[in-house]
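Fill-in record for Autochaperone domain-containing protein.
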Amino acid sequence: MSSPRTVIRSIWSFGLLNAATTYTGSTTLAAGTFATGAAGIFSRDFAFTVQPAVILDRQGFDQTLTSLTNSGLVRTGGSAEALLTTTNYIGRGGTLAIDTYLAADNSPSDKVVINGGIATGTTTLTVRNAGGSGILTTADGIWVIQTKNGGTTATEAFMLGGEARGGALDYRLF
């Protein structure tokens, strides 16, 4: 028996998801722009897919998913401290847009946390400076993708798209 599958199609160009969901299974955003209006909107049991030309704007709210497949645009939306936690992340040529204070080591940043699973595929990571003046990092830098509980990332899972600049300093993805 296959697991339940939900396909969300926007009839308008913008949909706001502002109530917690409790169902499980696969959910596909197939068209439009969707935004979260609170933390923890998605059921932790979601297997979530963002198709091409779809924007999922988390608006700075923390979300936890079982898995995320990204062929569109997943945007953090402005807090520079929002977490997206998932067991598995699959990049299918999509973009992940994060906000980061481009400053010293451990500066505040939105993060994707791979918790016990793996990040694979290819995703372009774009970084918006959320106000950092640019300070030389001398240790581990600013964490933007983090693994925990045995989580891993494939070598080419994330690549920096465009420029990440704070003051006179350029920041690179390592």
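KEY FINDING: The chain has one domain: 5-167.
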